[in-house]
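With this grant's support, we have settled on a layout for protein records. An illustrative entry appears below exactly as we store it:
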Amino acid sequence: MDNTIYQNPLITRYASKAMSENFSDEKRFKLWRKLWIALAESEMELGLNITKAQVDEMKKYADDINFETAEKYEREVRHDVMAHVHAFGDLAKSAMPIIHLGATSCFVDCNSELIVLWDALEIIKAKLVNVMDKLSKFALKYKDLPTLGFTHLQPAQLTTVGKRATLWLQDLTMDYNNLVNLQNSFKLRGVKGTTGTQASFMELFNGDENKVKQLEKKVVEKLGFSKVYGVTGQTYPRKFDYNVLCVLSQIAQSAYKFSNDIRILQNMKEIEEPFEKSQIGSSAMAYKRNPMRSERIGSLARFVISLPTNSAFTAGTQWFERTLDDSANRRIVNAQAFLALDGILNIYMNVSENLVVYEKVVAKHIAAELPFMATENIMMECVKAGGNRQELHEKIRVLSMQAGKNVKELGKENNLIDLIKEDKTFAAVHAKLDEILNAKNFIGRAPAQVVEFIENEVKPILQQNSALLGQKGEVKV
C-alpha cells in the first residue's frame, strides 16, 4: 500500500474482498470482452461476415487484459471504450475489424455495469439471509426471557429478549422482499445502438427487423439473462440506480436501528456486542467496553442512507437520450454504496452471532419496575376478594408515590411491594404476591409470536437460500 496517497477506507477497512473485486477494473474489462464476444458470435450466427476463427481468437484473449496498452491508448484517444477496443484488437488481431461492430460505448458500459450490480446484489442477499439466520437463532433462544419493553425510551410493558429480536428480523424480512422484487424486475440494456433506436444494426442486417431482435435476444442469453428494457436512450434508465440504492438504504436503515438498540442495551449492561480479550475500549479509560462494532454499523449506515438522493438527481437530470454528467458520479456512488453496505453486513453478522445477554441484569431491571406494572393485577385480585376498587386505587396511588420518592429522591430500591405487604388493605393478596409478580405473567404471547413469526415468515426465506448460509462476519480492524 502506498501510504503517501489517500486510500479508500471502504476497501482497506470495511468491505470484503469479494465485493471489492466485484467493482474492480479487471472484472469490468473482462465483462466488456465477454460482451464483445457475445455480440460478434451472435452477429456471425445471424449471417454477418464474421468467421468462427475471429470469434475463437477473441475468446482466446477474453481474460488477458493488457492494461498498460489500454492506458496508453486512452491517453491518446481520451476514450476508455475505444482504448480497450484497440487493446483487445492488438491481441485478437484477426478480429480487430469486427470488434464492437454496430455498437455504441454504452453497449459495453451499461450492460457490464448492470451485471456488476446484479452480482453485487447477490453478495448482499447472501449476507442478509445470514444475518437473518443468526438473529433467528438468537430470537428462539431467548423467546421466553422477559425484559423491560420501552416506549419513548421509558419503561413500558414487558416483552422478551427474543421478541425484541424479531423486530430487527422483521425489518430485514421486508428488506429481503424488496431486494428480491428488484431482482425479479432486473433487465439488461440489451443491444440498442447509439440513441436506442437500433439503427446501426438495422443497417448491418439490411433492414431485417427480425434479425435485429434475434441479435438482442441471443446476446442477452449468452450473458445469462433473459430480460431487456423495451426502450432506452443511449443508456439504461438511471432510475434503476435509484431503485437499487433505495433497497440498499433500507437495509442500512434496519442495521442502523439494530445498532442503536444494541448500543443502548450495552449502556444498560443487559446485552453486549462481542469484545475480544485484547481489545481496548478507550485509550484513557482502560475499564471501558465501548460498542465499537455497533457504532461502526451506524456510522456506515448513515452514509448509505444518504446516497439515494444523489441518484435521484442523476436520474432527474438526464437530458433527452443521455448526458455524460452521470458517468463520474455513478462510478463513485454505486460502488461505494455497495462497499459500505457490505461492510455493514459483515459487522452485523459478527455482532448478531456473538451477542452476550446478561440475564441477571435484565431481571434486576425488571424487578425495579415490575411493582409499578403489577399494581393493576394486585388491585384486581383484591377486588375479587371483596375489596373496594376506588379505595384500593387511592391506596395504590399513595404507596406508589412513596416508592417513587424512595427511588428518585433517596436513590434506594423500589420498595412498593414491601409497602403493600405492610398494609392490611391488601391482606387478601399478601400470600399471592410472588405469584402475581412472576415476570412471565406480563409477557403476553411474546414467546408464541417469536415461534410463529420465524416459522411463517423467516424460515421459508432461509430454506430458499439454504445454500448461502454458513457465512461468518469478518471485522478487519
The mean pLDDT is 94. The CA atoms of residues 22 and 119 lie 7 Å apart. The beta strands are 146-151, 154-160, 271-272, 356-357. The longest helix spans residues 105-141.
